[in-house]
From TrEMBL:
Residues 97-107 have a biased composition (Acidic residues). This is Uncharacterized protein. It comes from Mycena albidolilacea. Residues 1-16 have a biased composition (Basic and acidic residues). Residues 1-34, 92-115 are annotated as: Disordered.
Length: 1020
């Protein structure tokens, strides 16, 4: 028989020489063949592996893919020995081979059709494996993927790649060494943001020009973007992109431009007004002047035109965010410093999705200041980055400008080179504070409740001449103070309030190096300046001083590096509501309230909280038993829920002052979560009153709290931050805190020897996969821009499961007034009388005689999905009510979901002209006249939340059996029973649609005023 392994007809011979198998009693395989089998050695090895896997107890439990990772493969406590041995055998037999040999490529080759439709993956199999390897919240280790590939090969799955072929698709991160000698890797913002321009799912949402009209809801509508930013930091040009024939004509600012009417203007900046691009221009008139009077105010053509070379030029504003994060899922802390960036030219609705989070870097060694220095390489003024705009189908240049620096307060202090809240000058934004003795004076204490205040300066500290009392912190003063500290090679001084983390390192280095240089050049007789060996007295002192000054100058030139920046860390570190409000103020309020509770009070509060209505709040069920059981371990979502519901249930569970504090907390919280501001002047007037109320009540409860908890002093800066940057929710960091879960999974599966590199590479690969799957464009080796095949591009847009796992939500237009029917088993189809019931007595709308089916929800004008039981405002004189039924016409079994074929039965309520004195909220009572009305679905405005007035209506509690595993037990717990009296409180602490509520109610019901309790205490 010929040796088939050397014959060119190997494939045909393989088909005819598969061995027949039998097994002995002990399980040993018996192989029959006509002579030597071509695959005998491979079969024996495969049988040995199968025998090893048969012995594993893990396989029947299906937990194999959740047990192992590269980083602990040698740890006997975490990896089963048999599995490790099997993996080693897989490595030896080639099943687990990392090499990409030619033979392997031929065996698992790709067809021409696959290469086109599934490009660049080559096949559906390769695409699906790459997908599995890049799901953010379902991380797989190398062992997982190797095992999956091995199983697919054993199942004869076509086009299975080698493991290394899959890994070759990763992109590289850049290595950095900080000035402190720490090593880390970074995915630079320029590369990440270039993906946005080339991504067809992202590019349509990039807002290029500042918006100067309409309500404020986005970054580009706030004062910093529209008023403060210099013209050289705005977008430098415009072109008519919709007109392909004219899109090559680029109109730069500060250049002469001709209008259609023949007149000439000089554009100063490009803006949008109601989504239409406009230009602020200087009119040009032809006048006669002597040549000597010409002034080169404008450089024409624009200097950027030469750099552009015909390419469009844009500017992107970003938000860098850094925080200390644990790399472990367990409670054992594994310190890392993370850096993320956000494209501020995208709307907030998109930035709230995980898909748009851009991970830049992490390091267990480097501080955020060191990461910022590396990040700043992309922000250097005049640095333009290449990109491809998939919308206009052209190469572009773009510049990156940092816009705002949100973080928790310690991180913001470090960013601003501030000593922190424990310092004498504890505010990073102003010069508030002073020595302890001054803080305890009336003037010093009152200063904490205000901004731009005076503070006490010790006359001995001459550096304070740089700082003028009553002024906010100034970036130039801070830089000068850091230079002063380095120049004198001294330690940080708490009295200045300035302590730059990196400068502290260099201060110590300069002290050590200066000491060494002085020893060599002044002290050591063998090496010192020869003049010192002969001179004495005053002449010797002059030479020593000269040498010392030269050493100082050399060290100064060596250490000082201050690149220009376009951001002020003092003014551009706004109060971040997650860390400053939810996790600080709300936590203080909750702790002070519950620390004196006994088990009975906890049970009462849990029963009341369980009876709360959450309709119109957009929050999950509150889980009250969990809240009281783990009251000292709550997180942000719990405090956000308590902020909206807690005040309704604690009237007799806390002191009068604490109850007032709950009211002040809820009122201010609702203002901070505004999604849109129509009247900024009125909003700020209310905001200042609410901040003052909160701080005044804290002062009555615990006067020292604001001295030891400096975050309370951040609140007076809110009226400055919000007009400059926009809504507080725009720079909230919940989405980053959520993404930290993805980071931790990547950290767990890193090798822990080079965590910064491994994690950066893993997350860069996720960005790569998202870009390819989204239909993004990239440049190939020939310089042509290409994108993935049609089947790859359509997979994400048509597959909701992948959309959910990548954190991308497609905006689907909601048609106002449309209804959603109940399931066929529940909706029924009845006449008007039967569908409505006998208790209403309402006339059927024309045309009559139709069949009516029950519906589960409808869409309001604001886009809310309302159900029976939802509270709504609607366009009728009655204005307010609660949905009782939603009905739609049934035409031969087909439910007509349009608004014209549906009707809403609403229980009518009225809003009293006076507010509830206890809660300071509007009161709802049932209408005394017509109590039920028919409303067309398209007339409903928006949904809101209302709570039953249990105190006035004297609702009771009773013991009810406890359910465990859906089984009724003998144990009981308290349950609130609402009375039938229809009196409700309109929840003004609710965050959902709070701006709409305040727009439709009378100003007398929404105007913020000083709390009565504060008035009483002041009078006393």
């Amino acid at each position: 028989m010929r040796d088939g392994r050397k014959d060119k007809g190997l494939d045909e011979e393989k088909k005819n020489t598969w061995p027949s198998r039998f097994r002995q009693d002990n399980g040993t395989p018996i192989v029959f063949s006509a002579g030597e089998s071509w695959g005998r050695a491979e079969d024996v090895q495969r049988a040995d592996i199968e025998k090893q896997f048969d012995r594993l107890a893990l396989l029947p439990g299906h937990s194999l893919f959740g047990q192992f990772s590269d980083n602990n493969s040698n740890n006997p406590d975490s990896v089963d020995g048999a599995f490790s041995a099997s993996l080693e055998r897989m490595d030896r037999t080639g099943i687990n081979d990392d090499s990409d040999s030619e033979e392997e490529g031929e065996e698992f080759g790709f067809t021409q059709t696959n290469q086109q439709d599934w490009f660049p993956h080559g096949s559906r199999t390769m695409f699906m494996l790459d997908l599995l390897d890049n799901l953010p919240r379902l991380r797989l280790s190398n062992d997982h993927l190797k095992a999956i590939i091995w199983v697919m090969r054993e199942c004869k799955t076509p086009d299975v790649p080698a493991f290394s072929a899959l890994r070759k698709k990763q992109i590289k991160s850049k290595h950095h060494t900080s000035s402190l000698g720490n090593h880390f890797y970074m995915n630079h913002p320029a590369k990440l943001l270039a993906l946005d321009w080339a991504n067809p799912l992202v590019r349509p949402f990039i807002h290029i020009y500042p918006e100067v009209s309409g309500p404020i809801s986005e970054f580009w509508q706030a004062d910093k973007w529209t008023s403060e930013i210099g013209l050289d930091e705005l977008f430098p040009m415009w072109a008519d992109w919709e007109n392909k024939a004219a899109s090559h004509r680029h109109f730069f600012v500060n250049e002469l431009a001709r209008q259609y009417d023949g007149t000439y203007v000089v554009p100063v900046r490009w803006i949008t007004v109601e989504n239409v691009v406009h230009a602020d221009v200087h009119d040009v008139k032809i006048i006669r002047r002597p040549e000597v009077e010409y002034s080169p105010n404008y450089e024409m053509p624009h200097p950027l035109r030469e750099k552009a070379r015909g390419r469009p030029m844009f500017r992107l504003h970003i938000m860098p965010w850094s925080d200390d994060v644990s790399g472990n899922v367990s409670k054992q802390y594994n310190a890392h410093t993370n850096m993320y960036v956000t494209n501020f030219n995208l709307p907030h609705q998109k930035l709230a999705q995980e898909y748009f989070v851009r991970f830049a870097s992490t390091s267990p060694h480097a501080s955020s200041s060191e990461l910022f220095v590396a990040l700043g390489d992309d922000f250097i003024p005049g640095t333009w980055h290449d990109g491809y705009d998939c919308e206009i189908e052209e190469e572009i240049l773009f510049e990156i400008i940092p816009h705002v620096l949100p973080a928790d307060n310690p991180q913001q202090s470090e960013t601003a080179s501030h000593i922190g809240m424990a310092g004498n000058l504890g505010c990073r934004k102003d010069l508030n504070g002073g020595l302890k003795a001054y803080q305890e004076t009336d003037e010093g204490y009152e200063a904490f409740y205000n901004v731009r205040i005076f503070f006490y300066l010790h006359p001995k500290n001459s550096v304070f001449n740089l700082l003028q009392p009553g002024e906010p912190c100034d970036k130039e003063v801070t830089v000068q103070t850091i230079r002063w500290q380095v120049w004198n090679a001294c330690g940080g001084n708490k009295a200045t309030g300035i302590k730059d983390k990196i400068s502290q390192y260099w201060i110590q280095r300069t002290l050590e190096m200066g000491k060494g240089f002085r020893a060599i050049q002044i002290t050591d007789p063998q090496t010192r300046d020869q003049r010192l060996n002969t001179l004495k007295g005053e002449d010797r002192k002059i030479v020593k001083d000269e040498i010392s000054r030269q050493i100082q100058l050399d060290l100064w030139n060596w250490v000082i590096q201050q690149p220009p920046e376009s951001i002020d860390p003092h003014r551009d570190t706004p109060a971040e509501i997650l860390h400053t409000y939810l996790l600080e103020n709300n936590k203080y309020v909750w702790h002070d309230t519950t620390k004196q509770w006994d088990a009975k009070k906890e049970e009462i509060f849990a029963a009341r909280l369980a009876a709360s209505s959450i309709s119109g709040l957009s929050i999950p069920p509150p889980r009250p038993r969990y809240v009281v059981q783990y009251k000292n371990s709550l997180i942000g979502k719990h405090f956000k829920m308590l902020q909206q519901l807690g005040v309704f249930h604690i009237h007799d569970l806390c002191t009068r002052l604490l109850f007032s504090l709950w009211k002040a907390t809820g009122e201010l919280g609702a203002h901070l979560w505004y999604p849109e501001i129509n009247n900024m002047e009125q909003y700020l007037a209310d905001l200042k009153v609410l901040v003052a109320n909160l701080l005044d009540i804290w002062g009555l409860i615990d006067p020292e709290r604001i001295l030891v908890k400096g975050k309370l002093h951040v609140f007076p800066h809110l009226p400055e931050d919000i007009p400059r940057f926009g809504l507080a929710i725009l720079y909230a960091t919940e989405i980053y805190e959520c993404f930290n879960a993805v980071f931790r999974l990547c950290s767990i599966f890193s090798n822990h020897l080079a965590p910064s590199r491994d994690i950066a590479a893993t997350l860069a690969d996720m960005e790569h996969f998202k870009h390819v799957a989204s239909g993004g464009w990239w440049k190939n080796l020939e310089g042509t821009y290409i994108r993935a095949g049609s089947l790859v591009r359509s997979f994400l847009t048509s597959n909701r499961e992948l959309q959910r796992r990548l954190g991308w939500s497609k905006t689907r237009p909601l048609v106002c007034g449309t209804v959603k029917p109940e399931s066929s088993a529940k909706r029924g189809s009845n006449s008007w009388e039967k569908a409505l019931g006998s208790t209403f007595g309402l006339t059927e709308p024309a045309p009559t005689g139709a069949s009516w089916a029950s519906c589960k929800s409808l869409i309001t004008q604001s886009g809310d999905s309302c159900k029976p039981g939802s509270w709504v405002f609607f366009q009728r004189p009655e204005a307010i009510g609660r949905i009782s039924k939603i009905l739609a016409r049934d035409r031969n079994g087909k439910i007509l979901t349009q608004s014209s074929n549906a009707i809403v039965v609403v229980d009518l309520f009225v809003v009293l002209d006076i507010k509830d004195q206890r809660l300071n909220m509007p009161i709802l009572i049932q209408s005394s006249g017509t109590q039920t009305s028919l409303v067309k679905p398209r007339e409903l405005l928006f949904e809101f939340n209302a709570q039953h007035d249990c105190v006035t209506c004297k609702c009771s509690t009773a013991a009810v059996p406890v359910l465990q595993e859906r089984i009724v037990t003998d144990r009981t717990e308290l349950h609130t029973r609402h009375s039938s009296q229809p009196r409700f409180i309109l929840n003004m602490h609710g965050l959902h649609n709070v701006h709409h509520i305040r727009d439709v109610l009378l100003r007398a019901l929404t105007r913020c005023s000083v709390h009565e309790l504060v008035f009483i205490e002041v009078r006393q």
